[in-house]
Each structure stands twice: as C-alpha cells, then as structure tokens.
Design a protein that fits this description.
- The protein is of the alpha+beta class.
- Helices cover 31% and strands 18% of the residues.
- The protein has helices spanning 23-34, 40-47, 51-63, 96-104, 130-140; strands at 83-91, 109-114, 121-127, 147-154.
Length: 170
C-alpha cells in the first residue's frame, strides 16, 4: 500500500497541510498500529464502513503522509544485531541535510533525529556486536567532516512501544 518514501521534516519539500482526522480515521490508525497486516475487509468490518470506504481512507492517510509505511517489528538480538546504542552527535551548523543523508547510509542505522539541547543529532544503531559498533563510531561516523563530536550510549535493555495505540488527542 505504501511506497516507503519518507517525506522528511517540514521544509525539505512542500507538503500540503494535513487534513483533519475523524473518529473513523483514528480507529483505522489504531487497528493498523496493532496489526499492520490487517486486511481491508477486517478494517472495514471493525470500523463499520464499506471496504471501498476503508480502502479510500487508508490510501488518503498514506497520501497525506499520516501513514508512512508498514513494517515488521524485529527483535534485533534474535536477528543477530545484539549490540544497540544511541549515539549523540554535534555537527557543523546548517549541515543537517548533508549529515542526515550520510547517516541514512550507515549499516544498522535505525532512527535519526535532529534535536535541541547539548547535542544536535540522536542516532539509534543496531550492530552484530560491540566490535562492529566501535568500527561504526570510530571509522564511519567520525570520518564525516561535518561531525564535530560523538557520544555513544550503549543500550543494555529496551522495551519496544511501537504498537501503542494513538491517543484521542489527535
């Protein structure tokens, strides 16, 4: 259903303002967050609309960028990615777009965020082991000219909240 392209933060390309979501849209989002593999028929039955209506609504949510894609939730340790870390980066001012493109190409990069505070970028990575993580930080990250400094925070244990339902505050 989705083409998988991330629209990025505002300012990267023009996006029309989002259309307001109604109760049915929010219910559809809750269902798909809980089960991204739910069929159109199942979604339609659960929100009490026709299959055509459910299909059109899901496509509109995708086109509007509300739904950014569908994916599997992975247990990284069981998938051979036993070392995880959050890495903070200080970068050269106004180099965010350049740095972001280089970070997206890193093996194991799972999440990249431009943030405020004591550092500029927060990067989540998953690697097979600490040796690979060390090489990623010392060889790949610190070789990016716009990266001024890094700090690595090892993840000892994590809890995935990815399937939490939306709140009614939408």
């Amino acid at each position: 259903m989705a083409d998988g392209r991330d629209q990025g933060p505002p300012g990267d390309e023009y996006q029309a303002p989002p259309r307001p979501l109604d109760a049915i849209d929010r219910d559809i989002l809750r269902i798909l967050q809980a089960d991204g593999r739910a069929s159109i028929r199942s979604v339609a039955d659960r929100v009490h609309v026709s299959r055509a209506n459910a299909y059109a609504r899901i496509n509109r949510l995708i086109e509007d960028g509300v739904i950014r894609g569908f994916s599997a939730r992975v247990n990284h340790e069981r998938a051979g990615q036993g070392a995880s870390a959050y890495i903070t980066l200080k970068i050269v001012q106004n180099s965010w777009r350049t740095v972001r493109e280089q970070l997206k190409a890193l093996p194991g990069a799972a999440h990249i965020a431009l943030v405020s505070g004591d550092f500029d970028v927060l990067l989540l990575v998953h690697t097979p082991d600490n040796r690979t993580l060390r090489e990623l930080v010392l060889t790949r990250l610190q070789a990016i000219p716009e990266v001024l400094s890094t700090r690595t925070l090892l993840v000892f244990e994590e809890t995935d909240l990815g399937r939490r339902p939306l709140t009614d505050d939408l």
